[in-house]
Amino acid sequence: MDKGQDIHAMMREIGVRAKAAAGALAFATSEAKAAALEAAADAVWARRGEIIEANGRDLEFGREKGLSPAMIDRLMLDEDRIAGIVEGLRAVAGFPDPVGQVMAEWDRPSGLHIKRVRTPLGVIGVIYESRPNVTADAGALTLKAGNAVILRGGSESFHSSRAIHACLVEGLRAAGLPEDAIQLVPTRDRAAVSALLQMVDFVDVIVPRGGKGLVGLVQREARVPVFAHLEGIVHVYIDKAADPAKTLAVVMNAKTRRTGICGAAECLLVHRDALALGQQVIDALIAAGVEVRAGPGLKGSVAASDDDWGREYLDAVIAAKLVEDIDGAIEHIRRYSSHHTEAILTEDDGAAARFFERVDSAILMRNASTQFADGGEFGMGAEIGIATGKLHARGPVGAEQLTSFKYIVEGDGTVRP
Fold it and tell me: What's the domain count of the chain?
């Protein structure tokens, strides 16, 4: 048997086990799922030293591979970030179980009583790049929604993901749930990704979490349905009625808090009548070490080129453009946005309403940092990603978004005339 056949056989076996586990999870109790996540959280904290040691090996691999500082930041785990993983696991454990929730209920003149109730999707494949915390987030959310999951982490986070995955399995074992409910593909070989994307007999949906290259590959090759966003090309618009103090605070946070996440601002749009404020913000960004690629009428680090619009930098770089008015900002966003997150800074309710009505992105914000584009910050406990499509899931994908539904129809000897 050659290497490709070995990978295919391994992935098929993982799929078979995942499907069997999904069948058991579909009716697992809320108490058992919560207990598994609490036990996993305890294990992550107890084994944080092992996780940090494994992460050190991944960081060394990443530096040798030439990862950017932003990608190294995504990859790095320290005690504070592990505490965040633990907190996320406990938060998901404490959230209401979406499975079995009644979404709608009604009676028909025929005598039928109909309910639409949430049900698990089945088996979810998650393909992600360097952020090892996705191992915990994806495992927790899929379990909460009664799904089995096949995790395929990036080569950079190989050791960290394995260490975290071992803690999730420990939690499943402690709660008496099938250990195959959360499986991690045990190879860096890219053939495993291709195999996972073709597993229509075992996998119900694929969730890619990573850069444009990964997501584009998944969308091109997948035969399984995909929840995805290609990029986080995030715009922040400074309106003529923007409050200067709020604007400075929000833009600085939106760009500089963490430059390598998908909610980081990548393009600043400035109303012509807010030129002085916009320039003040640009000067502050430059002083903070951000390279500002500025369009005509604005003074930045360098002049912007046409290629700077519609770019996801994931670094200490931002494009800036002067627009005539709010409609000019809306038009720019429509042309260049990836439909992830956009923000308006304004004290004018009418301007905010126009922006919210005419911009079609998954998340729209007013006077708030785009770095809040996160399932945890939305009160979902954690997220498996931000979906920018329009079918099934949009915006942060939490446990509720990882369910489908079925109709429960009850009669009393009811027949159709």
Answer: 2
In three-state secondary structure terms, 78 is coil
- 365 and 405 belong to one structural domain: no
Domain co-membership, 64 together with 97: yes
pLDDT at 372 over 90: yes
CATH number at residue 343: 3.40.309.10
373 and 341 in contact (C-beta within 8 Å)? yes
Please tell me whether residues 355 and 318 are part of one structural domain: yes
Residue pLDDT, tens place only, 322-336: 999 999 999 999 999
Burial class (CB in 10 A: 0-12, 13-18, 19+), 249: middle
Is the same domain home to 210 and 89? yes
Q: Taking the model in full, what pTM does it have?
A: 0.83
Range of the domain at 249: 234-372
The dihedral through the CA atoms of 86, 88, 89, 91 has a sign that is positive
Percent of all residues in the chain with a pLDDT value above 90, rounded to a whole number: 83
- Please check whether residue 211 lies inside any domain of the structure: yes
Q: Assess if residue 337 is contained within a domain.
A: yes
Residues 6+ apart with CB under 8 A from 33: 25, 93, 97, 143, 144, 146, 175, 177
CATH number where 221 lies? 3.40.605.10
First-to-last CA distance in the chain? 61
Question: Using an 8 Å Cβ cutoff, are 293 and 300 in contact?
Answer: yes
Q: For the stretch 14-53, what's the b/e string if a residue is b when 16 or more beta carbons lie within 10 angstroms of its beta carbon?
A: bbebbbbbbeebeebebebbbbbbbbbbbbbbebbeebbe
Environment class of 112 (CB within 10 Å of its CB; exposed 0-12, middle 13-18, buried 19+):
middle
pLDDT digit string, tens, across residues 278-308: 999 999 999 999 999 999 999 999 999 999 9
Amino acid type, 197 = L
Whether 416 is in a domain gets the answer no
User: CB within 8 A of 373, min separation 6: which ones?
Assistant: 232, 234, 262, 263, 340, 341, 363, 365, 386, 396
340, 125, 137: which is closest to 222 by C-alpha? Answer: 125
Residues 148 and 285 in one domain: no
Dig out the tokens for 13 from the structure. 């076996």
> Is the pLDDT at 1 greater than 50, yes or no?
no
Partners of 407 in the beta sheet? 116
User: Left (φ > 0), alpha (ψ -120 to 50) or beta: where does 153 sit?
Assistant: beta
